[in-house]
Design goal:
- This protein is an all-alpha fold.
- The protein has a domain of about 50 residues.
- Helices cover about 65% and strands about 0% of the residues.
- The chain contains 3 helices and no strands.
- α1 packs across α2.
- The chain is elongated, with a radius of gyration of 16 Å.
Length: about 80
C-alpha cells in the first residue's frame, strides 16, 4: 500500500480509515480488558502510572501502530515485570 497525502483523501476514504481504526481499538480493548483489570488490581503504583502503562501496552497491540517511548522504559518494565 502506498501513502497518500492526507489533504487529498476523500470523505469516503477518511470514513473507511476511521472505521478500521475503531475496529482495531475495540479489538485491542476486548483482548486486553481482563489483563488490564488484573494490572490495576495488583499494582502498587499510583493510578496515573498504571494508566500510562496500560495505555502503552494497549497501543503496542494495535497492528501497524508504533508507540514511541514517551513514558520511558520504567513504565514498560513495571507492566511486564522486567527490570
Amino acid at each position: 500500500m502506498t501513502e497518500k497525502d492526507p489533504n487529498t483523501l476523500t470523505s469516503g476514504e477518511i470514513e473507511r480509515i476511521e472505521k478500521l481504526t475503531l475496529r482495531w481499538i475495540f479489538q485491542a480493548v476486548v483482548d486486553f480488558g481482563i489483563e488490564s483489570h488484573e494490572i490495576f488490581y495488583n499494582s502498587p503504583d499510583c493510578v496515573q502510572a498504571i494508566a500510562e502503562d496500560i495505555t502503552r501496552e494497549l497501543l503496542d497491540r494495535l497492528p501497524g501502530f508504533n508507540v514511541p517511548d514517551i513514558f520511558g522504559c520504567k513504565a514498560k518494565a513495571r507492566l511486564t515485570g522486567h527490570k
